[in-house]
Design goal:
The structure is a homodimer of 293-residue chains.
Chain A (H helix, E strand, L loop, with lengths): L6 E2 L1 H4 L7 E5 L1 H10 L9 H4 L22 H8 L6 E2 L5 E10 L7 E5 L2 E7 L3 E11 L5 E12 L23 E6 L4 H5 L12 H6 L9 H17 L6 E8 L8 E8 L4 E7 L4 E11 L1
Antiparallel strand pairs in A: 1-3, 2-5, 4-8, 4-10, 5-7, 6-7, 7-8, 9-11, 10-13, 11-12, 12-13
């Protein structure tokens, strides 16, 4: 047996363009995603019911952060070790940060083509930070969304790349302008995963234990969806057309069944926020902001 | 404008055999159904986790009452007025009783062909009781499940058919041998409907109001699934292979968010049960029994 040659070949990895892939979805998939992020809080409120009910009087709408599901296949390819110049232990991959921008309201169903490119690779000493830019296009070639996934991979630093800088979105000193509490269900991760992230870390008590957790953790992007709902509800009247972008850092995991508390500060250009696991008082998302039109 | 000619033509309707249809499903669909009926109660209990997690250590299993989803297309055809000799206002259709028998554990994915036949039509005076027998077969021709759907249609009685008899399964006089309480989520119907019953009565506050309900009601077959879980947990250690059959009468609707209480009596041949909406003390399912091996 030989030890797998884990590491980064910067020349091969940086600038690597994935073979484009197409994600197909129906209204049922968008509804399932919305239920996965806890929508609706009130099943009688038409403003949130429209994200899960295809004949809603308000018109069916896709919740904006559903756009992250388009890129599921990219994450699968990274985890199965399919990228040139990148060899790593998949249990050492952490989703560090996520930026998602909406160019237009998402179609209620259809086919979306993603064209991911590895836009940056930083040498953090102990690990590597790999950044993927993912523009997403409808059939007619219009861009509907753009993502930036920052993935931190432990154990493969020291390859001689740039260290990079990190941008911190600091919460203002004043108390939050608004606070929203959202319970999650004990089955939240089991529901969310049906939208396409089947990592056993979120379902299997044994695998979660091997990864050092007392039980399965909620998907970071599920917590991200709850937070997006909290901000859009507070500052955008649930209107998906007003949602422009969201940026978060994944600080700690939330456990299914915990209550997520989102603290928000209304600034001129954006809503700065952070999220805590209410039962533990620990910050789970920070360096975070949403732009609302 | 003419009034639609509602009514029954017994000669055409009785014995009518539907064109066979095939239902396709994947593990994701079976998982989604299980979540729709509140499974798992404890996400760390492998005996229920196996119904929603495809890499479960116990082996993935399909919850037995998923078999009712196979026949969704038959209900759609009845509601769209596609049956010879039967014309009715679809808002007047009530699911009266359901019998479901399992011949074998359900495949974890695949294609199931249903061959429904209208086996009985009774003239109840004010309405008609239409009974459909639905045998369900796998690709290799083996029968895996058999259903009997009894649908009561208000307003089209008096066509001169037999009145029929109804079989009552009476609960014993003694106090129940076991009682299980199961909370349902306020979003339960919105989740359950993604398994194939998109009747707006279960999602749309306006439509529910027109039908005389204060808010959308839970699907009878969703309540049925919760009850099946309660009995299998109590008398079958959650083992799907031991589930033989279930029979219920739909007495009253449950509202999403209410707690379902299942009272059970262990008899030699079967478990007799009834279900109540705990908050109202009203019986929602009765004349009900499960056979467990």
């Amino acid at each position: 047996m030989t030890t797998p040659a884990y590491g980064v070949d910067l020349g091969q990895l940086l600038g690597y363009a994935f073979e484009p892939f197409t994600f197909h979805y129906a209204e049922r998939d968008a509804s399932l995603y919305a239920l996965g992020i806890g929508c609706p809080s009130d099943p009688l409120d038409a403003r949130e019911l429209r994200f899960v009910y295809e004949r809603s009087g308000e018109g069916f709408a896709v919740f904006p952060t559903f756009a992250v599901i388009f890129a599921s296949q990219m994450i699968d390819r990274m985890l199965t070790g399919d990228l040139p110049g990148l060899r790593f232990d998949p249990t050492q991959l952490l989703h560090g940060e996520q930026f998602t921008q909406l160019d237009a309201p998402l179609p209620t169903s259809g086919a979306i083509t993603c064209r991911p490119v590895i836009s940056a690779v930083y040498d953090k000493g102990k690990g590597a930070l790999v950044v993927a830019d993912v523009p997403c296009f409808t059939d007619d070639g219009a861009r509907v969304a753009f993502h930036q996934y920052s993935m931190y991979i432990r154990g493969i630093g020291g390859f001689g790349g740039e260290r990079g800088t990190s941008v911190e979105i600091a919460a203002p000193e004043r108390p939050p302008d608004a606070v929203v509490a959202q319970p999650t269900a004990p089955t939240q991760a089991l529901l969310y995963r049906l939208s396409g992230d089947y990592n056993p870390l979120h379902a299997d008590p044994l695998i979660a234990g091997l990864a050092g957790f007392p039980r399965p953790i909620l998907h970071g992007l599920c917590t991200f969806g709850f937070a997006a709902r909290a901000v859009l509800r507070t500052y955008g009247d649930h209107d998906p057309a007003r949602f422009r972008s969201i940026r978060v850092r994944f600080a700690k995991p939330l456990f299914p069944g915990e209550t997520l508390v989102t603290e928000m500060w209304r600034e001129p250009e954006r809503v700065i926020f952070r999220c805590l696991a209410s039962e533990r008082g620990e910050v789970v998302l920070n360096s975070a902001a949403v732009e609302i039109a």
